[in-house]
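anyone seen this seq b4? input:
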Amino acid sequence: MDNLWTIIWDDTLLTGVKELDKLHEAIAGNANKIYAICINPGTKEEEIIKLAGFLKQQLMIHFDLEVDFYKKNKLLCYERHVFLHQEFKDELKKLDKLNMPIIVKALMTNQIALFYLKNHLIEEDKKCIKELKNKEV
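predicted toks r here
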């Protein structure tokens, strides 16, 4: 992992479920792109709005897909994930209501995505995948 604003995708972030890992890696890439375009003085506001909106949409879809995956596999972590993912979704929705410059909103979206990847993925998602793998044995 890199710093407060970016993340280096590596094997420590893999869950072992290709479908989820692919989504997580895409989120990481777009979070990193947001930071890169926000610190580039030549970036047009429209580019920031477009990428931040895409990342937000990507996160919302991912949260639902991941919860559905855990439900389908009847994992005990399902209910906790519903709650935790709803918290992330609520935070993203709150950004729309804030009266602040788009670059600040974009960087806050970046931070929500990175917190999800650096904390939730490692702490919560990996526990669920471990539960899944133990069920399969």
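The CA atoms of residues 67 and 81 lie 6 Å apart. The mean pLDDT is 89. kinda curious what u guys think
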